Amino acid sequence: VLYIMNTKIAVAKGDGIGPEIMEAVLRIFAANNVQLEYEFVEMGKSYFDAGHSTGMTAAAKDTIEKLGILFKGPMETPKGKGVKSINVTARKVWNTYANQRDFRTLNGVETVFSKAGIPINLTIIRENIEDTYGGIEHLLTYDVAVGRRIITRPGSEQVIRYAFEMARRKGYTKLACGHKANIMKLTDGLFLEVFQEVAKEYQDIESSDIIVDDLCMKLVTHPEKFQAIVLTNLQGDIVSDLCAGLVGGLGFAPSANIGDNISIFEAVHGTAPDIMGKGIANPTALLLSGILMLRYMGFTKNAATIENALLYTLEQGVHTGDFGDKAIPSSGTQAFADAIIANL
Ligand code: NAD
């Protein structure tokens, strides 16, 4: 069901470093003869500034809804009270209920775990719509602020089911549910209850649950013990950034926002305004997101070839300035992409 037969996708280059890293990734796709057509859509901060409150034109929305897949660069969040993030709006508008983030050890990207020879290969599935992200907050008095947290059975079920299906597809043998049901007995309690119900249908996957604070401790002491973890929105947000740190930081963190009709593939990082236009941004996270997208769409051979070329390039020590061996001079964004292309 997950394989989309479309060969045309919508692409939004994004703001800040977005256009630079998107150019690098699409050049790598072209060099590997990926049979995808792109329809570039008008989406981002400048469209918000031009009066489009969702950060995209009506034509962009139509195109994305027609094509079902959006490959996007990072987008700047407009400043000001009451103004919503373009990225969060897009996830809500299209009900992309599962946020999948893959984290793995990459040779050439040095971390405390790689130095200790401990390989990491784990996936976080974060619920992407509910929880505290509705932003339903108010002041009860000048000194007391109240926020609402919403967890629903259907909302929990769709993301948990996705997590089990993904675990099967990736050949994982276990899936854990992270939660705080010992304290939030109704909200996290409901999420955990749904997890345990759905788990009965997936006897081939070993299911377990773990309290989120204990999970954080175990992730930083024994990350190799985990394969896949499903969590509610806010806890998943925090735990997935923790996992990004385990494998070398935001430059290596891809993500997929999966919905039934529309899915969005993007890097976890933002627009990096401090380095935009300098040609030094690391395109790896966007490339890894693109590889996730290719696999999702069934372009498994392209995905494997490009992934291997990336891994080999990293192993050779080729790197952008944000990581890698300082003794080897760093490459700019496009030179890094050229090195990957040469290794395809
Ligand atoms: P950021 O991720 O843009 O930058 C944090 C730090 O990481 C900066 O020092 C930056 O230079 C560095 N960095 C990030 N990506 C990098 C890359 N590919 N290569 C090298 N270095 C990289 O976070 P921020 O500064 O908090 O946010 C900037 C803007 O991006 C904000 O408007 C924010 O709302 C937005 N944002 C968008 C998304 C998205 O589009 N999904 C995600 C996060 C933040």
Automatic annotation (TrEMBL):
Subunit structure: Homodimer.
Cofactor: Mn(2+); Mg(2+)
Keyword Transmembrane: no
Residues represented out of the complete protein: 16 to 359 of 506
Domain of life according to the entry: Bacteria
Organism in which the protein naturally occurs: Mucilaginibacter frigoritolerans
Catalytic activity annotation: D-threo-isocitrate + NADP(+) = 2-oxoglutarate + CO2 + NADPH
Enzymatic class: oxidoreductase
Alphabetical GO biological process terms: glyoxylate cycle; isocitrate metabolic process; tricarboxylic acid cycle
Domain (Isopropylmalate dehydrogenase-like) ranges: 8-340
Keywords for this protein: Glyoxylate bypass, Magnesium, Manganese, Metal-binding, NADP, Oxidoreductase, Tricarboxylic acid cycle
Keyword Metal-binding: yes
Classification lineage: Bacteria, Pseudomonadati, Bacteroidota, Sphingobacteriia, Sphingobacteriales
General function of this protein: Catalyzes the oxidative decarboxylation of isocitrate to 2-oxoglutarate and carbon dioxide with the concomitant reduction of NADP(+).
Any one GO molecular function term: isocitrate dehydrogenase (NAD+) activity
Protein name, as recorded: Isocitrate dehydrogenase [NADP]
